Amino acid sequence: MIRTIIGVSLVPTRYKVRTPTGEYYVRCGADLLLNAIGTDLEAEAKCPACEGIVRFRVTDTEIHELRPSTSILHVVETRMANGRHAVECEGSPIFDKENCLQDWLDGYQGKPGSIFKPQEFLDRMISLRGTEEAN
Ligand SMILES: [Zn+2]
After folding, report:
1. Nearby residues for ligand 1 (ion, Cβ within 5 Å)
2. For residue 85, how far is its CA from the centre of ligand 1 (angstroms)?
3. Which of 2, 64, 100, 119 is the most exposed place for a label (fewest CB within 10 A)?
4. Main-chain phi, psi angles of 99, to 5 degrees
5. 97 Cβ partners below 8 Å, 6+ apart?
6. Per-domain residue ranges of the chain
């Protein structure tokens, strides 16, 4: 079965996932985690502030081996017309540490977002999805 990769990009990006079906670039840090809801994967990203590498593995929606453990996401969430939840990728990178997030925020002029640890964001998306499917 071929799964759809959320946010897949045909050109290389800072964000890469490896799933049982292959390796894909995706558009943002949030996409790395959104894909982890449906499949186990390995993720690798580059911090947009310092180019530091962020890595983790997801098994059954649990994040393992998060390196560095200080990695943190900034996410801009929106509601689509049909009420479903979406993220705006331009405002949703992943950083290797809090200082990088702060540096990036100093120059950020997009929509205000929220800050999550990777597991927090994954858990939040799983609970939102449950709500949407119930509706
Ligand atoms: Zn950094």
Report:
1. 47, 49-50, 52, 96, 100
2. 28
3. 2
4. -60, -40
5. 47, 52, 68, 70, 71, 72
6. 8-134
Q: Calculate the alpha carbon distances from 35 to 31, 72, 105 in Å.
A: 6, 17, 25
**Is 3.30.450.410 the CATH number for 8-134?**
yes
Residues whose CB is less than 8 angstroms from the CB of residue 124 and which lie 6 or more positions away in sequence, other chains included:
116
Distance CA 41, CA 71 (A): 17
Q: What local confidence, expressed as pLDDT, does residue 132 receive? A: 66
C-alpha 47 to ligand 1 mean position (Å): 5
Give the residue among 130, 40, 45, 119 at the shortest CA–CA distance from 85.
Answer: 130
How far apart CA 47 and CA 114 sit, in angstroms, is: 17
Tens of pLDDT, residue by residue over 22-56, are 999 999 999 999 999 989 999 999 999 999 999 99
Res 3: pLDDT: 64
